[in-house]
Amino acid sequence: MNFKIAIAQIDVVMGDVSKNLSKYRDYIKRARGKKVSLLVFPELSLTGYFLKDMVPNCALRIDSPVIEALKKESKNISLVIGFIEESEDFKYYNSSAYLEDGKVIHVHRKVYLPTYGMFEEARYFASGDSVRSFMTRFCKMAMLICEDVWHPSSVYIAALDGASVLIILSSSPSRGITAGKKLSSTTTWETLNKVYAQLYTLHVIFANRIGFEDGVNFWGGSEIVMPSGRVAVKGAYFKEGLITGEVSLDALKRERIFSPLLRDEKAEVTIKELERIVSQLKTIKNERT
Amino acid sequence: MKELKINTKLTKEILVGFIQNETRKIGFKKVVLGLSGGIDSSCVACLAKEALGAKNVWAIVMPYKTSSQESLRDANMAAEKLDIHKKIVDITGQIDSYFKNFMGASQIRRGNKMARERMSILYDFSVKYEALVIGTSNKTELLLGYGTIYGDMACAINPIGDLYKTQVRQLSSHLGVPDRIIKKPPTADLWIGQEDEKELGFTYNEADKLLYLMIDKRLSDKELIKVGYKKDFIENVYRRIQRAQYKRKLPLIAKLSERTIEQDFRYPRDWGR
Lengths: 289, 273
Description:
Chain A is of the alpha/beta class. Chain A is built from seven helices and 14 strands.
């Protein structure tokens, strides 16, 4: 089974949800015109990224009119959206939601909030506490948000939980200009996407935004990487656009026959050793206190 | 130093995008800059032309009577080559009229006054032409504090503030800035015979290599000495950076309320844009 997907590699207006929603609608319309079945938007693309004190002002409840409107849009095209989620107890999460047939199928709350160097997410956001795959009308998928992917355990869990498609929502800032062909942030991401696709034999859909926020650039370069590690579709750097490609479960099947890495994975060994490590860490901690 | 080498094509693409995006977001279509005939302002003029088109770039040349003829000639040459708007505003009258009352004023006072006079002219033309003031201070100058606060450091956006002087040279060469401008000794041209490198006591090449390792790579003093830097040089550069910190920040505000600007009232400048 194959299905057509698209990535909306867009610029975002900082803190203006309604303007960003109208861009969402524009891209949904374009994607429908191209018979796309699944459309993926980047991290925090309904709000902007370096929002600081604006975070609570542009947060959305999962039953808010904006999400309701997007749920309605999802009746004939599945959508992955990036937004700030306000929980009932007034916590703010850097979240993504998978919308299908007018319903919210799954919400992922970013687990790893970068708070170093140029990043200060943990100052403004609460962190999520789970990584799950979920069933869609196509196959099992998982969503991770940007820094989540810099922790290989996140991808490991998603893959073992059965995801055939890993959707990565990103707002990756351009940094590290050298004599090299690409920015260092670009090179690192492209390496990660390729390695994960190949090691966990799954499709990686990497949706990165473009534009500037207070002088910081986002480099785009969204891509679809096949389970073989081959980059099937590549978006332009720095330019807005709808990037379309295909997820092929047939290709996935072949790749998993060639490289049955997931079949041979020993989760019990991992758990056993992790339990040992965690208990040793606890002992050390207790001895110190 | 190979670490200071940059991919100039990629750098240009990002900086052109930066000028387009941030100018539009502030609500402008045009920019205005002070064109001195030196490498930094020539480089920014090139980038601005690429970003906004020649007809949307205003270069203001602001000589004083002691400014070198070479600077004026190079500024004219750069503006003509780029085919951008050019206006010459001689600041001699207003500077001399002011200092008539303060005859013994030091070179520093005179230099600062000229830099701020030029700033006030740029901001005046900013209104006249509905053009955003675009800055031309590079990372080396900003770190070393080699500039006048609220003078040549004043601007709305600065495309080259994260490029060391030696990197501005590479980019300028890629952008087609005339060789003569790239190769001549850098000068603030605030008094006769002034040269940046003589005044600083070291060359930009030397400073940039050290700054790169110290700032970008976070090498400790110990490590810097190990790779061959003299303790005096390290301390001199470090002191300069530390002393100039105030120039890179907004004025300090005495905190009283629950929400004080910059402390706990924190919004991006592109708020709602």
